[in-house]
Every structure is written in structure tokens, then in C-alpha cells.
Design brief:
There is one protein chain. By secondary structure, this protein is mainly α. The chain has two domains: 9-127 and 229-256, no CATH class; 129-215, no CATH class. It contains nine helices and two strands; from the N terminus they run H-H-H-H-E-E-H-H-H-H-H. The chain has helices spanning 11-14, 17-33, 39-53, 57-82, 100-126, 129-138, 143-172, 182-211, 230-251, and strands at residues 90-93, 96-99. The chain has a two-stranded antiparallel ribbon. The model has no long low-confidence stretch (mean pLDDT 79).
Length: 256
């Protein structure tokens, strides 16, 4: 199985998966609940600092920025030009008329999406999927749901790896995939093997699950051992209380 996990021995990698999950939830909640245009941007800088501590800055920042760039551009076009709020302050940029409030809203949505995506990616980059699922099942999550979560976390890297292998095999047999409409035509011979391979993989995983008595009742043993400390458990509770506090003060109207 492939995953987007980046192996490492940093402080962030050694934290318990639930501690990192609670921190991710707190960052995401704060990005959407704290007031001010710059709050999500400040939280994104915190995520970047954590990525630097985890030693994954190089493999972390590029996919986040490239993945969100089309969405951010479309948000600024839609909010700033096409759908300005009523009574907005116009900003003339050559032949284009923008609005101050529309650009502010686009900036807020973009930074929130940036913080949300980067926090989730940081969690997945520094936490092995099996460790995360094991930690959740230890806390009572059903094993069937844990397996679905594990497959979900690994399906995209698996499909990308399989598609790359199929494309390289087709190129070695003389299929041209570059220039003009060739990449589009190359999709036709790619889809068939990709779908068939995915179906075969599902069958193999089902057989592996049955051979290991995954669905049998009773307690299970695992080769994985997660290190948890009292300080981490206290920190997790404090972060969860922080989320509840943010929701409470937002509901009572303290943040405007």
C-alpha cells in the first residue's frame, strides 16, 4: 500500500496520532471561528512552522499551493469581479472594476481553505495511516470503519502509483503520451488497466482480511505499539476544551 506519509524521526512524528489529530481540529476550528482577516493567515504560518519542525517543508508546501491555486484564482475572480456584495467600495484596476469587500471576502475564504488543507496534509504527512487508525480503534472506533478510513487515506497514492506504472509500461511499448492531443488519447488505454487493477486489488484486500480473521469477534492483538504520555493526554483535553470554548464564544456573539 502507498501513502502520503513521509517517514521521519522529528518531534512531530513521535507525537501520538490523537495528539496531532486534536491539534489539527483546533487549528481548523480556529481558522473558521476566530475573527479578523489575518487570523487564518497567522494559523497557516503556524502550520508552516510545524512543517519545518517536522522536516517536511519541501514535500509539504508545493502540493498545497499548487492544489489550491486554481481555487484561489477563481475565488478572487468570482467575489471581486462577478458577484460583488451590495454597496461595495469599487477599486478600479485599469479596465477592470474590483470591490474592496469582495476581495476581502475572497482573501478570507482562500486563507481558510489554505489553513484547512495544510493542517490536514501536515497530519497525514507526519502520521502513518495505520498508526492513526490503530489509535482510533483503541479508543472504541469499530474496526470496519477503521479499515474504510485506512483504505480512504491510501487510495489516492495507490491509484497514482498504479497509473504511473501503467503509463511507463505503455511508453516502453511505444505509446506516445506527449505533445498535442496525445495525452488525451493516452487516457483511453490507461483507464482499462487502471480500473481492472483496482478491482483486483479490492479482491486481494478482502481475501487478506478474511485470512487474518479481521471480522471475527473478540479482542485483537497488534504489532503496533503507540507511545502515549500523561502530558499528551492532558494537552489533548486542553485542545478539545479550546475548540468547545471557541464554539461557545462564537455562539454567544462575543466574536463579531
Amino acid at each position: 500500500m502507498q501513502s502520503i506519509y513521509s517517514p521521519g524521526d522529528s518531534l512531530l512524528h513521535r507525537l501520538h496520532p490523537l495528539t496531532k489529530l486534536a491539534a489539527t481540529a483546533l487549528i481548523v476550528a480556529a481558522a473558521y471561528l476566530l475573527p479578523g482577516l489575518l487570523s487564518p493567515l497567522a494559523l497557516f504560518l503556524v502550520v508552516l512552522l510545524l512543517a519545518y519542525i517536522g522536516g517536511i517543508m519541501g514535500s509539504f508546501l508545493r502540493p498545497v499551493l499548487l492544489g489550491l491555486l486554481p481555487i484561489v484564482v477563481s475565488l478572487f475572480v468570482i467575489q471581486g469581479i462577478l458577484f460583488p456584495p451590495p454597496g461595495a467600495t469599487p477599486l478600479q484596476l485599469g479596465p477592470i472594476t474590483l470591490t474592496r469587500e469582495g476581495l476581502a471576502l475572497a482573501f478570507l475564504i482562500s486563507t481558510r481553505l489554505l489553513t484547512f488543507t495544510s493542517a490536514i496534509l501536515l497530519l497525514l504527512r507526519t502520521t502513518h495511516p495505520a498508526d492513526l487508525v490503530f489509535a482510533l480503534t483503541e479508543r472504541g472506533m469499530p474496526r470496519s470503519i477503521g479499515y474504510i478510513l485506512l483504505v480512504t487515506l491510501q487510495i489516492a497514492p495507490d491509484m497514482i502509483s498504479r497509473a504511473t506504472a501503467i503509463m511507463e509500461a505503455q511508453r516502453s511499448r511505444g505509446l506516445e503520451t506527449q505533445g498535442g492531443l496525445r495525452p488525451v488519447r493516452a487516457l483511453v488505454p490507461l483507464v482499462g488497466p487502471l480500473v481492472v487493477g483496482a478491482l483486483v486489488d479490492v479482491e486481494e484486500r478482502a481475501m487478506a482480511i478474511e485470512s487474518r480473521a479481521y471480522t471475527a469477534p473478540g479482542p485483537k492483538t497488534s504489532l503496533r505499539e503507540l507511545v502515549d504520555t500523561t502530558s499528551q493526554r492532558i494537552t489533548r483535553w486542553l485542545m478539545l476544551l479550546g475548540i468547545v470554548a471557541l464554539i461557545a464564544v462564537r455562539l454567544i456573539g462575543f466574536f463579531r
